[in-house]
Amino acid sequence: MVARNFLLLATLAPVLVLGLNPSPCIRNSGPLPAEVRVVGCPPSTPQEPCIVPIGSTVDSEIDFVLQRPTTSLRATLEMFLGDFRIPWSLPEAQQDACQDLMGGVTCPLTTVGQRIKYNLVTEVSAPFAGVTVDMELMLTDDQGQSVFCYRSQATVV
């Protein structure tokens, strides 16, 4: 019985969703999200970026509090290698963040103070491995104002 329970725990361990400590964006401004969770990534510290294999999928859940009503949400994800912006952007289908809200929430968003869950699932593709990149994920409202923006690091292997 104990061996079976240990095997079950060992099987479930790789899919744990752990909270990250997001940092403020450097290039973009905006409030931090209330909480960021990434499947398989430990809480972020400058010494320990999330390790992501090329070809894997990164599944993030981001909670934010609605500061003002909006009819739309646009997602942007910028990546940097030092000061160099890597020429990459989210696929067109993922830029409409209203499509990735969770819990039956849909746009327009009208309830100020409402806590909203946003889910971003992205595939890791890179021409090289063994580098640590900085990423800034931002959602903007229908007026182009930041709903949230946070910075995190990942090491591509």
Automatic annotation (TrEMBL):
Keywords: Secreted, Signal. One of its GO terms (cellular component) is extracellular region. Its main location: secreted. InterPro entries: Ig_E-set (IPR014756), ML_dom (IPR003172). Residues 1-19 form the signal peptide. It comes from the Eukaryota. The keyword Signal applies. Residues 24-155 form the MD-2-related lipid-recognition domain. It is found in: Secreted. The keyword Chaperone does not apply. Coiled coil: none annotated. Belongs to the NPC2 family. This is MD-2-related lipid-recognition domain-containing protein.
